[in-house]
């Protein structure tokens, strides 16, 4: 019985560890993408396609992080 609990705790720990790793990777990815989006905005601020892309990207980041 004790071995089963230890095994469940290990699974929970690894699941939490993977979740933290995923969120931190996503955060780093968003830090890399934000300057690119700003550069695209500066270069072509009249195009609305990039605004839609930016909005879509931020919605995905927010949904995946929380």
Largest beta-sheet characterization: none
In terms of structural class, how would the helical and strand content be classed? Answer: mainly alpha
Please count the helical segments: 2
Helix amount: over 70%
Q: What is the CA-based Rg, rounded?
A: 19 Å
> Which assembly state applies to the chains in this document?
single chain
- How many individual domains? 1
End-to-end CA span: 35 Å
* Mean of all residue-level pLDDT scores: 74
Low-pLDDT segments: none
Which shape, going by the Cα principal axes?
Answer: rod-shaped
* Share in β-strands: under 5%
Number of strands: 0
Secondary-structure topology with pairs:
Elements: H1 2-43, H2 48-65
Helix pairs in contact: 1-2
Could you please describe the fold and organization of this structure?
Keywords: Membrane, Transmembrane, Transmembrane helix. The chain crosses the membrane at residues 20-40, 47-65. This protein has helices at 2-43, 48-65. By secondary structure, the chain is mostly helical. It has one domain (2-65).
């Amino acid at each position: 019985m004790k071995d089963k609990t230890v095994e469940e705790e290990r699974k929970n720990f690894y699941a939490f560890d993977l979740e933290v790793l995923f969120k931190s990777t996503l955060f780093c990815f968003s830090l890399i993408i934000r300057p690119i989006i700003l550069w695209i905005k500066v270069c072509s601020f009249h195009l609305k396609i990039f605004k839609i892309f930016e909005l879509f990207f931020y919605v995905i980041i927010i949904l995946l992080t929380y």
